[in-house]
Each structure stands twice: as structure tokens, then as C-alpha cells.
Amino acid sequence: MITLTIMLSFATLLPNVRAINVEITSIEPTSGKVGDTVQIVGTINKTGGLYRIWFDRQKVKETNATGNTVNANFSVPAIPKGNYTIALQDVENNINATAATEFQVETGYYIKTIMMPNPPEQLQENSTVRIQVNVTGGGSNTIYSANITVKVPNPANETYWTVATLTNTTNTGNGTATVVYPNGFYGTPHTNYTGTYAIAFNETATTAVATNTFTIGLTDSTEYHRRQLVDIKAAGYKPNENVTIKINFEEKTIDSKANVNATEGGLILADWAVPFNASIGTYTVNITSTSPNATRKATPDIQNFIVPGFDVNITTRNLAREIVANVTIRVLENETYVLDANTTSDGLAQMKLEIGNYTGKAYYKGENVGQRWINVTNVASLDFYCNLTNLKISVIAVLDGIGIGVPETEIYLTPENKIFTTDINGTTVAHSLLPSVNYTLNVTRYDVSFNVTKISTLLENGTATAWYNVTIICPTFTLRVNATDANSEPINNAIVKVRESMGGLNYENTTVEGIAIFNCVFGKYTLEIYDADGIKLNETNTNLFKNWNISISCKLYGLIVSIKVIDYFGQPISNANVTLQREGLASILHRTTQPDGVATFSSITGGNLQIAVYLSDQTHSCVAEWLFVDSSKAIEIKLEKYVVLAGFLVETSSLITTIIIAATVLLVLLIEIYRRKRLKPQKSSS
Fold first, then answer.
1. Angle, alpha carbons 124-127-133 (nearest 5°)
2. What are the residues whose beta carbons fall under 8 Å from the beta carbon of 342, sequence distance 6 or more?
3. Fold classification of 476-553 (topology level)
4. Chain-wide mean pLDDT for the chain?
5. Residues 510-534: pLDDT tens digits?
6. Which contacts qualify for 544-547: CB closer than 8 Å, 24 or more apart?
7. Stretch 69-85: mean pLDDT, rounded?
8. CB of 621 within 8 A of CB of 610?
9. Could you give the strand order of the β-sheet that contains 23-28, starting from the edge strand earlier in sequence?
10. Rg over CA atoms, the chain
11. Hey, where are the domains in the chain?
12. Whole-model pTM?
């Protein structure tokens, strides 16, 4: 019992761990050929642990899980056809799980050409071609035979064949064989035609299990640049047969070689140099026999090749090295037009040019803004600097001898017909302007023009520069503010704040005898007046497009507030302590009521006021209330709790109690007198 109790105690202290099964939840696909990709999804027990994937007895994957999840890809290994088990192993816990369905490896058949030239190079007529056939996932230790066919380009409709024995597949199920076409093929195989040849791996005489193609041409490449030699070779002619070779471009013959004789082996061998000024485009080689007993091929010896040019990327920039869009680059070669290219929003013009020296001319808004040499020898990227100038406009106002930038100023620029707005520093930039154009600047604020500046040229000493600077002076005007209180008297030491409506320009001053004077920039402003305690007294708006005087009446300032304290019966209470406190202020004003019960407060700033009344022998207020005061006035405070009696304050409740008691005593006394009179004996009459 003791042992069991200890074991249960320890068990309650162990963390609650839920075991996760090692399992394969899915495999996609469940069949395929050697080299195909397979996805496996599952879980292992060890969080982030190492796992292995086994295909039969081959390890095909080893990595760590994400959490407890396994999600991986692997390739089907080289293995004979058949059904195989896929297993997932949790390495640390040495726990294995197998897939519910076995994977079926299928036999794959392939055919391709090998040792071919890299494009744009190509094989020419009379060439030999190495063809390789391959079997994967075949039977182990099995010898396969491949019936390989080659079909020459249409319309010849000629097919040649041979049989190749693949090497023993051994225990991998893979076998390979290589043949050389046309060597060893039955019939009269050849590569005397230009075009595409079809090759096939035939499992039977009529069924192809794999196909592919290769191409034969007249030239050793499909692309050439200027001054390169085009190597031409054709086969299948009679010895010494005479042919004519023509080079055509855009349906015109640009060169012709006549009386070219075939070799003893029937080959036509020639070359043609691409001219130094050859245009970009597609060219055609055409070989025609001119002999009396001319060879007529089922597929004529005609082939296209191209002069592609090189990619040339030109970025247009102004003199300040900024990108300029919508520039037309006109390219000429020996004063002959070649092409036009327009720059995009990122200033890039893309074109193809062949080897040579070109002249590039830049046009912006119809004006020639630059010229430069473009030397092309290969792929190139270059900058084209245009005679375009940046115009920097500064709008300043002079205040107390110091120039300050004026923000939110609009400048309408013609003939660009664009509006520019100055920033917080009072500057703006018109980018990439033609330097020889006459410009006009119409400068406005709040849609009111205050300056028109004409610029005849952006040239300095006859030369375009990167930056051309213009400074415009914004006018300033005197603003005179007259602040008066509720009694139309000047307010001294009031704080006047002048804030421009669009922001950025702010002024502040203090009134002297009610007057504050400002020197402000042309614009619209909001005026705010505050008392010494920071209470806003009034606010108004004004336009300052000339010298301006403005009076602001602060009807909440300089008020006289009289507080009359009365008792229950409306009699004045003297010597009461009255306090006045404005909302938002810590200071409290104190006054004592006079014999008429009135306490007077002068020079008060109106608003929400708290009024409290204290009696001389009390520390707590008898009454406290909030009132909104917007003008001079008398306010009556009634203390219903008290009554003035013979110059003394008596609580109303005590007085009433006394009166009730006195009245009761008097009533009892009267009743007693009356009763006694009723009981007195009467005298008998004689």
C-alpha cells in the first residue's frame, strides 16, 4: 500500500504528455517511373525529430520534422518494376510505420539525341547524329531490344530503322543503348534534307513508346551578327553539279553566288559574310541547282536565319541626373534612320541594335535635347543625358529682416500648364524643363495672385545647367488687433495668437492697452485671444491681403458678478464668505457680503463658475452650485436653512421648533384660562 501510494503521488507530478503515433497519412502518387517525384505526409512521435523515408530497403530521405509533422518529397530510386513498400522511421524512438498501399514502379522508355551543338548552333546536312535509348524500371537482369526509327522531314516521307540491344538491366532495372544515324540504319538513310527529323523508340513495329526530334540545317547556326561568316553546307548533289546560292532579305535578293560546284562527294560548301551594315531581321538561304540534269530534292534546300542585334537599354536623364520619361530616342547609322524608341515611366528605352556606331538623338516635347554616340559591340546599357533643367522655386517672406519660407503657395507654370505647391520650407521643383523656353510663373495663395514672374530662359551664360533657381518674395502686411472687454474697455496683457488657416505660419503677441500689432505673410488667418490664465476669450477669422485693422470684443472678459446672500425670508445675510472659481482654474476668489448681503467680484472671466457660500463659523459651504455666466449680472443665493433674527443667524428648523413650542404653551395657557372662567360660581340675584 505504501509503494502504491508513492507511485500514485509521483504520477500526479508528471506532465500530461500525449503520445503521437508514427504513421503515414498519404502518399501521392502511388505509382510512377524512376525519377518521378513522390510526396509523403505523416507524423512522428519526436517533436522536431529526425526521420528517414525508406523505399523498399533504400533510404531516399533524411531530415527533421516540423513539429511532429512530416511533409516531404523524394524521387523514385533506380529499381526494377514491381510493387514496393514505403516506410517512415522515427529515428530517435526507432519506430517505423509503413504506407497502407504499396508503390508501383512502372517501366519508363526514353529516346533522345546526345552530343548536339548548343543553340543557336545547329547540325548541317550530311551530319551524323548520336541517338540514345533508355529503359528504367524494367525487369531485373533483362535484355531489351529497341526498334529505333528515323523519319526525314516532310514531304519526303522516308523512314529508316535499326534495332539496338540495351545493356543488361541487372538489379536496377535500367538499360541503355546508343546508335549513330545514319550509320547502320536499313535503307538509304541520310541527313540531306533541312528540317525536323522525327525519332522513335518502338516497342513493336507499329507502337512507339517514346519519341523525340532533331533538326538539320544548311548553316552552322540560326543567328549571326554583322561581319560574321555564315557557313553553308548542303548534301545530296551530283559530283561537280552547279548550283546558285541566294541570300534574300524582306523578299529581295541582297546577294547571290552563281556557279558553285558540288564536291566529288556531292557536297555544296560555301560561306557568306554578313555585311557591316546588315539590318536586323530574318534572312533566307536558297540553294538551286542550275545543271541540265539538276538534282530535285523532295525537301528544297531553303533555310532562314536571323541577324538578331543586341539588347541595348538606354536610360534618359536630365542634367541633374534624374530619370526622364517620354523621351524619344532616334537612332541613325551614317545619317540613315534606323529606329525610334520611347522611354517609359522609369526612363528606359529598349531596343535592338547590331554591331556598329550609331548616332542617338533625344527629342522631348518635339525639341532636340541631346545627341550622343552609341557604339554597339555586345549587349549594352547606357545613360543618355538630355539638356533638361530643373527649376527650383523658392517663395520667401521677409520678417524682421529674416527670410522665411512660405508653404502652401501655388505656382501655375506656363506653357507647361502645371501647378506646383511649395513645401514646408517654401520650395518646389519643376523637373526636366526645356531650357530655351519662355516661362511664366503665376504665384497665388488662397486663389489670390500676388506675383507674376516671367523667365525668358533657363540658360546660364548660354549653357543649360542642372539647376536654375528663382526666388519670389511674398508680400507681408501689418495686422493691428484691438481687444476690448465686456465693457468696451481695452484689455491689457491679453495673449493674441495668429494662426494661418493652411498651417505652417504662426504668430503670438501680448496686448498693450488692448493693442497687439503683427507683421504677417499674405494669407488667411485665425485670431485667438486668451487671458493671462490661458482662457480663450474669443476667436475670429480674417483675410490679410492688405494692411488691416480688426477689433475683437471679448464679452466674457471684465464681467462684474454680484452675489446676494439671503435667508429663508429673503433678508440679507452679512459677513458671509463667498467664493468664486472658474472651471479649469485652480485659483479661488473670496469676498465677504456687506450689510446688504451682497459680495461683488470685478474683472471676472465668464464661463462655468462655481459659487460657494460659507458662514463665518462654518468650515463647510452652506451651498455650492455651478452657473454659466456670459455677462455682468447679480445672482441671488438663498440660504433656506437660516433666518436672521435680531442680527443673529438662527437655523430655520430651530426657529420653527421654538415658535411651535411657544404657540403650544400659549394655546394651553389660553385653554386653561378659559376653563377656569367657566368653572367660577355665579352670584345669586336679589
1. 115
2. 326, 327, 328, 329, 349
3. Immunoglobulin-like (2.60.40)
4. 90
5. 999 999 999 999 999 999 999 888 8
6. 544/477, 544/479, 544/520, 545/448, 545/450, 545/477, 546/477, 547/477, 547/478, 547/479
7. 95
8. no
9. 23-28, 37-43, 69-75
10. 54
11. 19-105, 108-217, 229-307, 310-385, 389-473, 476-553, 559-649
12. 0.71
In angstroms, the CA 396 to CA 427 distance is 9
Is the pLDDT at 79 greater than 50? The verdict is yes
What's residue 413's pLDDT?
97
Query: Nearest Cα to 556, choosing from 584, 594, 586?
Result: 584
Q: Which CATH class is domain 389-473?
A: mainly beta
Q: List the single range of 34-48, 100-114, 447-461, 500-514 with lowest mean pLDDT.
A: 500-514
**Is the distance from CB of 44 to CB of 50 less than 8 angstroms?**
no
Place of cell 459659487: 611
Q: Which secondary-structure segment (H or E) carries 659?
A: helix 652-679
Element of type H or E holding 679? helix 652-679
Nearest-10 Cα torsion for 466, 470, 471, 473: -160
**Amino acid sitting at position 252:** K
Does the domain made of 19-105 have the CATH classification 1.20.120.1200? no
Cell of 103: 508503390
Residue 546 in grid coordinates: 492688405
User: Under DSSP, is residue 61 helix (H, G, I), strand (E, B) or coil?
Assistant: strand
User: b or e along 497-525 (b: 16 or more beta carbons within 10 Å of the residue's beta carbon)?
Assistant: bbbbeeebbebebebeebbbebebbbbeb
Q: What whole-number distance in Å separates Cα of residue 612 and Cα of residue 630?
A: 19
* Fold agreement between 108-217 and 310-385: yes
- Report d(CA 433, CA 393) in Å as an integer: 13
Classify domain 229-307 at the CATH superfamily level: Macroglobulin (MG2) domain (2.60.40.1930)
> How far is Cα 488 from Cα 557, in angstroms, rounded to an integer?
10
Facing residues of 93 across strands? none
Q: Is the dihedral of CA 51, 52, 53, 57 positive or negative?
A: negative
Write the CB contacts of 177 (distance below 8 Å, at least 6 apart in sequence).
132, 133, 146, 164, 165, 166, 167
Distance CA 102, CA 363 (A): 71
All cell numbers assigned to 612: 460657494
* Pairing of the two strands 310-317 and 380-385: parallel
- Whether the upstream peptide bond of residue 120 has omega within 30° of 0, thus cis, is yes
Task: Determine contact, residues 384/360, Cβ cutoff 8 Å.
Answer: yes
Determine the average pLDDT of the residues in 264-277.
96
**546: number of Cβ within 10 Å:** 9
Q: How does strand 103-105 pair with strand 427-433?
A: unpaired
Q: What's the grid cell of residue 485? A: 472687454
* Distance separating alpha carbons of residues 169 and 592, to the nearest angstrom: 122
- pLDDT category at 496 given cuts 50, 70, 90 is very high
Overall average pLDDT of the 127-153 stretch: 93
Least confident of 125-129, 217-221, 341-345, 641-645: 641-645
